[in-house]
Structures are given as C-alpha cells and as structure tokens.
Amino acid sequence: MTFTAFILLGFFSMLGMIIMGLPIATSMAFVGILGGLAAYGLPFINSIAPVVWGVHNDSLLTAIPLFVMMGELLLRSGIADRMFGAIGAWLGRLPGGLLHANIGCSALFAATSGSSVATAATVGTVALPSLHRRGYRMSSALGSIAAGGTLGILIPPSVNLIVYGSLTDTSIGQLFMAGLIPGLLLAGFFMLWVLIQALVEGNTQREPKVPLMERIRLLKDLIPPGVVFLVVMGSLYSGFATATESAALGLTCALFFCWRSGRLDWTLLQNCFVQTARTSGMILLIMTAAFILNLAIGLTGVAEAMTAWVTSFGLSATATLLMLLMFYLIVGMFMDVMSLMVATVPITFPIVVALGVDPVWFGIFIVIMCELGLITPPVGMNLFVVHGIRPDKGSIRDAIIGAVPYVIVLLLFSLLMIAVPSLATWLPQAMR
C-alpha cells in the first residue's frame, strides 16, 4: 500500500465510523492511535500522555466553558426574549416582517454566545411560537433561524475560532477581529434575501407599526448583550486582558445582568453549570482526540506529504480554495462541524499556508465552511435544532427547504471572500 493510499484509508475509515454513529472523539482517537502504532509501534503510546496533558494545561481553552456559560446565563435570564422584542419592533415593518428580526437577533446573540447551536436554539425558542401565531410560513421561519444561528460561530466571540487558533497556533484576538466584518456582512446578506423573497413573492407581511418613542424605550433591552460584547472585545483589543480573561470579564457582566433581571437563583445556576459542563466536555474531548490524531499526522509526515502532493499539481491558491470549498460542502453534509474542523485543519492548513494564504483569513474561511455544514442535510445540526422546537410538529422537510436559499447565499459569500480576502484581513491589520 502506498503512503497516499494509507492516508486516504485512515481518513475515510474515520469518516465511515462517524457516519455509522460512533462518537466523534472515539473515531479520531482510534485512527490516530492505530496509525501511530502502525508507524512507530508501542513507543507512540508513551508520547500520547504529554500531548494530552499539554492540551488540557493550556489556559486558552478555559475560555471555552466561560463563553458557553455566558451564553447560557443570557438565555435563561430572559434577556434574549426581551432582545428579540426590541429588534422586532425596529425591523418588523420591513417586507418579510419578523424574519428580519430572526437574523438580527441571531447576530446580536452570536456576539455573546460563541455557539451556533445555542444561538439557533435561543432565537428559535423565543421566535417560533410568535411566528406561528402570526401565520408566517414555517419553512421560511425555520430557514431564517437555522441560517441566523450559524452566525454564532463567526461573529466573535466564537468557540470554533478558539479551537482553530489552538490547532494552528494563530492569534485568537486576530481571529475574533477578522470575523467581525464577514459576520455582519453575512447577516446583512441573509436579511437582503428575506427582503428579496418577500418582494418577489408579493408577500408584504409586516408587523404593526410601533410608535417611535416606544421603539426608543425598547432599546434598553439591547444594552445587556451590547455591554457584554463591548467588554469582551474591548478588553481583548485594548490589551487589558487575554482571550481567557476577557471571557471571564464577559461572564461577570452576564452574571450582573442576570442578577438585575431578578432570575438569578441556585436553580438557574445549576442548569447553566450542567449545560456548560456537557457542551464544554464534548468540545474538549473532541479536541483531545484531535491532538492525538495530529500527533500521528505530525510524526508520520502526513501533512508534509499531502502538502507536497497538492502543490505538485501547480494549482494557484484560488483554485485550491475552490477545490476545498467543494470538499467541505460535501463532507460537511455528513460530519458534525467541530469534528469537520479538527479532523481536516491539520491537513489543509499546511497546504494553504504553503500557497501563501493568510492563516487568519483561512480561519474565517473554515468557519464559513462549518456554517454550511450546519444547514446542509442529512447532518445539519441547526436544522434538527429548529425542527425540534417548532410549535406545530411538522416535517423536517420544511426546515431543509427553508435553509436551501441560505446555503446558496453562503456559497456566494464564500466566493466573495476568496475574491476579496481583505474583508477578513483588513480589520486585524488595521488594529495592529
């Protein structure tokens, strides 16, 4: 068996185990350990412990449970409910009505959550009952919430960007800043699609006009998420705090606003702690398995071999990125986005860097590919999340149909990112 065939066998074996339902961390660790044993024998086992210890001894990863906890507090304290009401009052008069509020609320909650699934679940829980009562078409409602939820891993703070930065040794601060403009632009493009769809279909459904003074009064409900975002990003980019310390400051602000809401009690805290532990444990287990796999990849020279093989074709950076776009679109249909990232970045990152692609820009590109995976069947997690909380108990087909236009928007936006890389690189460079 050639070296290339050995690499492909390992990758597709891991993909097959994931598709069959084996835990993601187990699949990656199994392939990594088996590959390492095949190449180096039992001494490979001795090298795993220092790697695992090094992963969990990295203070940067402490930011993950802090950001997850921050989003949980804002959700369970009722702040997200009031946030949706305020945004709906301002955007509900546009053609498409509250579908714009779905996107806007998702973008704002993404700035405090760091998780796409949490964003989709939060906005869906708040918005879907209201949309159902008002007679909105369920496929459009589900699609807008599923797509808006993807902004949770692009608009900073983002757990996926933290994981990418840890895997590639890229500045978390630079990645957060790079995700800001693409995240806001993508939210704008989603809202533009809602507007175009409403005008083309002749659907002029709008919400009743809210008096200006009432809309101004409701702006106070946007203060908590806005303050949390400013504290996190401001402390990070002013140099006052590291990524982990800024997460702790954001969590402190979230606790304060939760206390001000009158809902802070032991039951709420217990629920937040349990959910945070579940989510963080899942992420860290996957990362541990990913680093075991990365160890095997590094020691066996897989990344170097794949880089040499791809560059031998003489493809330009743009052509390579277009190939990766198709690759991630297809593979993302069958893999969870976190496993998609940690399983492929160790191989694709050296290839694109060798072609001169900016590591920070590639981090945003990878996250957009993960966003595609979140709303493409059969394993689009956001589709299952919004379907699970819909009030009318219809078919998941509605969620899939509603998400298709947003998949196209994401693909077009990816092409725009490739054509104009400064959309992601300008702000980090300007802030240096």
Automatic annotation (TrEMBL):
Coiled coil: none annotated. One of its GO terms (cellular component) is plasma membrane. Residues 12-422 form the TRAP C4-dicarboxylate transport system permease DctM subunit domain. The keyword Methyltransferase does not apply. It is found in: Cell inner membrane. Keywords: Cell inner membrane, Cell membrane, Membrane, Transmembrane, Transmembrane helix, Transport. It holds the Pfam family DctM. The chain crosses the membrane at residues 6-24, 31-53, 59-75, 141-163, 175-200, 283-303, 309-330, 337-355, 361-385, 406-427. It is a multi-pass membrane protein. GO terms for molecular function: transmembrane transporter activity. InterPro entries: DctM, TRAP_DctM. Part of the tripartite ATP-independent periplasmic (TRAP) transport system. Belongs to the TRAP transporter large permease family. NCBIfam families: dctM (TIGR00786). The complex comprises the extracytoplasmic solute receptor protein and the two transmembrane proteins. This is TRAP transporter large permease protein.
